[in-house]
Amino acid sequence: MPGALDHLWVVDLSDTLAGQYCARLFADFGATVVLVEPPAGSPVRRLAPFSEQGDSLQFFHLNTGKRSVVIDRATGEGSSRFEALLATADVVVLPPNGDAAAVERLNPACVVVVPSNFGSDGPRADWQGPELVLQALSGMMHNNGAAGREPLYGTGNRAALASGVGAYVGALTALYARKTTNRGQVVRVDAAETAAAMCFPYVMQYIYNGTVRQRTEQAIQAGQVLCRDGWVCIWIYNFRWHALVNALGLPELEHDPRFADPGDRRVNWDALFAILQTRVADMMAEDLVEILQRAQVIAAKAYRPSELIGSRHLAARNYWEEINGRTALGPPFRLSAVPRTLSRGAPEPGEAGDLAAPPARRSPPARPAADMPLSDIRIIELTTAWAGPMSGRVLAYFGAECIHVEAPNRVNSWRLNKDRPNPVNFPDGQPGARWYDRSFLFNSQNVNKLSCILNLKTEEGRATLRRLVAVADVVVCNFRPGTLKKLGLDYESLTAIKPDIIVAELPAFGADGPMSGYAALGPTMEMAAGMSAMIGYPGGQPEVTGPSYLDPIGGFNAAAAILTALIYRQRTGQGQYVEVPQVEAAMQLIGAEILKAGETGIDPAPSGNRVPHAVPHDAFPTRGHDQWVAIAALDEAQWRNLCKVMNRPDLIEDPRFASVDRRLDNQDALTIIVSDWTRSQDKHEIADALQAAGVPAAPVQTPKDLAEDPYLAHRGFFTELEHPDAGRHPHPGLPIDLSATPGAQVRAAPPFGGHNRHVLEGILGLSVDEIATIEAGPAMATRPLEGA
């Protein structure tokens, strides 16, 4: 079956997780992807975890669907074939030190993708960036784990693979622009900048009012209970309190003076969850989740990775794929017109020895670059909170006109309209008269967008939206599955208006299957994706990453899916339905770990920041309140260099620490020694000294640190924008840099209904009388309705 990208040739020269994941996404949707390996094979072949047969599951996961050729660039053997591959490629993915300019000279139409950890210039260009370092620098690790204990970095290589998604987004954007310019360009994505972009709402909080979110704020609305077969996370919105207690058969709690008021409930949170724990201890976790979800209370089981292989929900969705007799993860997103097209597993070295490349590409004369690569695209965004708006924000960054549609009685939850105004959410701690336009949360995610208020429960509101669809390219929705259909705005109905429309939905668990109707948030998706069960302190409960790690990941994946559909439509004129099941997309970031647990039936036990292949690998206390430095000695040379920087050469000869295995046996003693050294020092100075000595290390940065970070400043991560109600502030950006058609932040988030008239008059061209009728009716407003 043809794929969305089956007209593309991709040459993967990368030796990084990010680069190989970027290239694998092309293979997923039909591109011919050739992995170029040295005679010793890609270094990713030597990365854990390993299968029962001894090969790397990381390599298998990242290279399924590709072909392999072996070229010895050191000796020049195969150089003519190598140049032929480059001359015919639509996309070349390079290692961090790759020569992008040389590829451009050889093939001016080629999109050259260069993923790296820190870029090739500026602060930290020479730093080492394993996952622990990337997460420490991102601002997210600061939020993870229990107050007073070492913060937790998470699991797997999620920052690196998320930057692979960013690289794919950048490459597709450049390919879309190529239709106009006839030229390729260079796409650069840093993993460190990508990791910071996952945390930027809380950088905005600091920028707005100087407050720094603390780990003690983590569980204001969520808690966990242990059922017979696993943990369940329950999210208790204030407006779902009645539903929760009745669903659990505890109606007497509703008016209990300890819990009736939200403020008192938070004070007595531990007492509440002790009661809930007693009530559910003998229940099966999935049964509890089903009961709560039927009552519209958000909850999720913390699935262990091995449980995902046998999930009845994933089985019902035909998620798992068998390729060459091996299990592979299903697609990160689904396209109705062009499904995923994988037909082969990860390649053997050089197995594509007879691969014939297409004729060398003849580049037509270059045309001037468009102002922005997606400036001809109009998006209608029916979204709320983080993931959906993040997807629109990525596309708007590259020039798409994104119209954020809300109802006057059901506004974006990140405007905080359901909560009493809390000073920490607003500039200078002042809610102001239009506090719903001053929330750092909403304003962080809706840069570059227009705001149009339409009540879609009124016929006039739906009719106005249908008129918008007729002149739009994409509709994005992250409400519960079925919401669009109830409104008469499902894909089939919208294609009757605009046959080539692309409709993208972001259901947490997919559009079908036993769990398809379940609501979710970032933390509960992290539970369901198998991540949280691997994160935590030894013997403790599962932990989640920061405030809501999987929401921005979902936004990145949705942008990638929409761009894949846009590239297909640009070539064929055909739109389609795009499904982004956020949990399944997130599972890709721990794909190798899931496959390992599926093979062995053994799940990694939570062990804080410790890993079986490196010691030390942890966060250590430094000078100041809740200040930490992350340190990872990944090999013997780094261990010896750490001892030298500590001025403790005696540790090198200490028999307790003579090898990785011995250090693993004596980690507790080593942690005390390293902590005694770090405790009185500045976290930034320690990290600088260790990185200069070749030891991976990083300060565990707070949002304040990110706002003042010299690396992000050098990258131009922040843009000063003026908001009519919130004032002028630096706004965090996105980590995807295109050399010829770059994205930009040009306009702060829109005031509520601030573009109603522009949409009606400037976009739809309605008459004065039509506009007056709509504005005077219940379909449109410029302020949220009371209680919305």
TrEMBL record:
Matching InterPro entries: CoA-transferase_III_domain, CoA-Trfase_fam_III, CoA-Trfase_III_dom3_sf, CoA-Trfase_III_dom_1_sf
Keyword Hydrolase among UniProt keywords: no
GO molecular-function terms, A-Z: transferase activity
Alphabetized UniProt keyword annotations: Transferase
Region named Disordered: 340-370
Record protein name field: CoA transferase
Key word Nucleus present: no
